Structures are given as structure tokens and as C-alpha cells.
Amino acid sequence: MRDALPLVWREIPERYNLIGSTCENCKQEFFPQRLICPNCRRKGNLVPKKMPDEGKIFSFTQVHSGAKGFENETPYTLAIVEMPNGVRVLGHIVDAQPEKIEIGTKVKAVFRRIFAEGEEGIIAYGFKFKVAD
Amino acid sequence: MVNGKVGIVGYGAYVPRYRITAEEIGKVWNKDGKRTGASLGVSEKAVAAWDEDSATIAVQASRTAIESGRINPNDIGAIFIGSESKPYAVKPTATIVAEACGCSGNLTAADFEFACKAGTAGIQACIGMVASGMIKVGLAVGSDTAQGRPNDALEFTAASGGAAMLIGEGEPLALINQTLSYTTDTPDFWRRQHAEFPTHAGRFTGEPAYFKHVSTASKRLMEKVGTTAKDYTHAVFHQPNGKFPVKVGMDLGFDKKQLEAGLVTPLIGNTYSGASMVGLAAVLDVAKEGDRIFVCSYGSGAGSDAFDITVTKYIEGKRAKTPVRRMIEDKEYVSYATYAKFRKKIKDLE
Ligand SMILES: [Zn+2]
């Protein structure tokens, strides 16, 4: 399981602080980070950019059969969150009763554990979303 | 005076959303939980969710402090995290907080451990570094997901939560006039390496431990700055339960009204390293310019850090965006089974 370590480490800016990219040429923003702007190709220039930490639920689903490593957390809610900059991000919704989760519900990024590699491995942290007050 | 300039330039707290009542805990052990809770002065306690730990709590509190105090994370030159429930036995929580708060790498960082007072020890370290000109702003956090052994008295109080204080100069929302500590080697509570739950010395934890250290540090600080209890608008003491802080406060000459704003343990339990700091955050949420605040922490082992603080006119612009009382009210009750799952008290859960 320690194979995940390089990836966990590399993804820290993205997972902790929602660091994506913005193209200096066409101004479009991307998350996760991209190497090449799909609009501008060689003319584009992508630089790191922090995404807004608030958005609205674009769509969501209740997961009853959890992915590997998340089996004990079911049922949990996964949502696609649309940020004010148009970027859509997939994330868990935490601390919410199901009836509070609807399309259009305002959510805010919070810092949580994503997974732990067994009892002795690394703990991966990152963003999840919580219904905003 | 420390130097007349150093103070709190931002603050934030975090209380998890879930609660378990003393009654619910009692049910599992065939005890009258309501009565046990009443005797401890704690009716319910805050429970961190499945995916929360002392690092995530520290990050949430620190982000609130940075945002509310409008501090540039690049100005933070030191981060000290006080906790006795670290996610890693070896690997600092402070680096996780630094990264998650967008700080530059140009800072010193470490985790402190001194039972329930590691957070205030961090505040003192930051005061020294700021006042000496070593750093511009320091971040001190007290954060815990405290665990009590199942069916132990501690299980009724051991809770999760934390608070962060940014220490700096230039427009502080509260000046730290003076701080002083009292420390002795007193084995009232401990957890050995690799042990899952702490051990406490029962009745021994009161008189020679909590009361002796809190009252000695408090009296000495008031002597040093020439104040009496009457000079303070608010007083916050470490609150391992709902009773100790009230008793020690009254013994020192404070009245219930002075203790009210900062007394949060009856509603969220003992957040250990977070306890006195969450209490201070709750006071800062309601304090006005000119209010004088007395704070005294306590950590088993044992020691107390006392602080004499004066609120400034900058408080209005820097109040925490998420007040402690609102987080206390925003709650959802869980059963003992859910609590056992969230806190991984069931073997084999990580
Ligand atoms: Zn482009």
C-alpha cells in the first residue's frame, strides 16, 4: 500500500488547498491542474491557481457500496460541486442530513481525512464539502 | 508587561458537529448517565466525525483565525500545535497545518505535548518569539480528539475540539499584558507510549493537581500585575468538567457572571488541549473594547499557564467568522454505536 505515497505527497497542494490551474492566455480555470490549455494549446500558459472554496451542488449521489478504503463510511454522499469560476469538482459531502442536500445547495470546502493506509501507513488529508450556513 | 505590543491578532475555534449525551453513554454501562453527567457538570460532549482528527480540527480552527484576523499566511513564522491525541506518534501535525493554511515554508514548526495545556504553552512560545523580533506572527493551536477508556469516568467528558490563536504585534484584537506559569512533577494523569487510553489517579487529580496549579499560577499572576478578580470582565479556566473551573474561579474571588462566557465544557465536554483556548475564543466572540480577560490553563503532569489580557478597539473587525456558541448549537446527536465507530473504538477500524 505504500505505493500510494508518492501520489499522496504530490497531490498535497491540490487536495489541501484546491490548487488548480488558470490559463494566462484565455483566463479559463481548471481543476485538477493541467499541463496544457485545451483552448489555447501551445499559445496557452498554465499557472497554479487556488480555486474558490465555496460552490453549489451541481449533482450528487448517495453511495451505499463504498469504494475500496471507504467501505466503513457508507452511506456517504458524493457530489459534483460547481464553483463560481465554472470549475466542477468531485468531493464528499460531510456533516449533513440527507434532506439538506439538494441540487443548488451552497457548500464550503473543509479539511478532512480522506483515507489512511492501514494502522501504520500514511494518512491522506484533503478537501471535502460541508453545507454552508 | 510583556512589551505592551504583543497580543492576539486573530483567533478561531472548531467544535465538531456531533454530540453524545451522558445519558446515552450511561445506558451502555448500566449507569445513570444523567446523574453521572450532572455530578461532573457535563450533559453532553462533542464527538469528532469518522474523518476528523486533531489535525483536521487544528486546520479548521487555524483557517478561521487567519481569515478572521486577515493575516497573510506568509507572515506566520512559527506554528506550534498542542495535542495529546496526535494522528501520528512521530510526524508533526504542525506541518500539515502549515501546508493546509497556505503558509510559506519559511517558518519553524513543532508539536507540543503537555496534557491539556500544550496549546497555551504554544501561545507563550509565540509571545517570546514575537516580542524578541524573531518572527512577525506565530500560530498556537490546542486541538484534541480526547479518548476515555470505555466505562471510565473520563468517557463522560473526553471530547473533541480545538482553537487557534495568532500572536503578533500591530493592531492586536487583545493585548497580552502578562503571562506566568507554575509547574511541578505531579503524576495525576498519563498515557504511556503505545497505550490506547490514558490512566488517571482518581481523586488525586483534584486538590494536589488541578486546584493547586491553577490557583498558584493565578494568584501569582494577579500579584505580579497588581490586580484582583474584580478587575476582570471575564475569566477562563481549564475545564476538565463543568465543576472544577467554577470552584477554582470562586475560590479566587471571581463570580459566576465572570465565568459564564468562557465556560463551554458543560455543553461540549473537555476538549483537552483545546479546552481553555476554546473558552477564550468564546469570550473573544462577545468581548468589548477595554474588557480585561483572565485565562489559566492546566495540564496534568502538571502545570498551569496564566494570562492577563486586555481587549482592544480592533476586536470588532477581527471577530471569528464562526462563533463558538453557534458551533455549539449546530449539533446532531449520535448513538453510542455511532460514537464507537466514529472514534474507532471498535477494534480493526482505522
Ligand atoms: Zn487557454
What do you see in this structure?
- In chain A, a hairpin with a 6-residue loop joins strand 7 and strand 8 (123-131).
- Chain A has 133 residues and is mostly beta strands.
- Chain A has a 5-stranded mixed barrel with strand order 4-5-6-8-7.
- Helices cover 9% and strands 42% of the residues of chain A.
- Chain A has 2 domains: 2-11 and 53-131, Beta Barrel (OB fold (Dihydrolipoamide Acetyltransferase, E2P)); 19-51.
- By secondary structure, chain B is of the alpha/beta class.
- Chain B folds into 2 domains: 7-173 and 321-342, 3-Layer(aba) Sandwich (Peroxisomal Thiolase, Chain A, domain 1); 175-316, Peroxisomal Thiolase, Chain A, domain 1 (3-Layer(aba) Sandwich), CATH 3.40.47.
- In chain B, 34% of the residues lie in helices and 24% in strands.
- Chain B is built from 13 helices and 14 strands.
- Chain B has a 9-stranded mixed sheet with strand order 5-4-6-7-1-8-13-12-11, sandwiched between helices. Chain B has a 3-stranded mixed sheet with strand order 3-2-14.
- In chain B, a hairpin with a 4-residue loop joins strand 12 and strand 13.
- The radius of gyration of chain B is 18 Å and the shape is globular.
- The mean pLDDT of chain B is 95.
- The A-B interface holds A 12, 16-17, 50, 72-73, 92, 94-95, 97, 110-114, 116, 118-119, 123, 125, 128, 133 and B 17, 49-53, 55-56, 59-60, 63, 87-88, 96, 99-100, 102, 326, 330, 332, 341, 349-350.
- The complex binds zinc ion.
- The site of zinc ion (ZN) has 8 residues of chain A, from loops.
- Zinc ion (ZN) is lined by residues 23, 25-26, 28, 37, 39-40, 44 of chain A.
Helix content of chain B: 25-40%
CATH architecture classification name of the largest domain in chain A:
Beta Barrel
Whole-number average pLDDT of chain A?
92
Give the names of the bound compounds: zinc ion
Task: Kindly report the spatial arrangement of strands forming the biggest sheet of chain B.
Answer: 5-4-6-7-1-8-13-12-11
Name the poorly predicted regions of chain A. Answer: none
How many β-strand stretches of chain A? 8
Instruction: Give, in order, the helices and strands of chain B.
Output: EEHHEHEHEHEEEEEHEHHHHEEHHEH
Question: Mean pLDDT of chain B, as a whole number?
Answer: 95
Distance between the termini of chain B: 47 Å
Gross morphology of chain A? globular
- Number of discrete helical segments of chain A: 2
- Poorly predicted runs of chain B: none
Radius of gyration of chain A: 16 Å
The H/E string of chain A reads HHEEEEEEEE
Largest interface: A-B, 22 and 23 residues
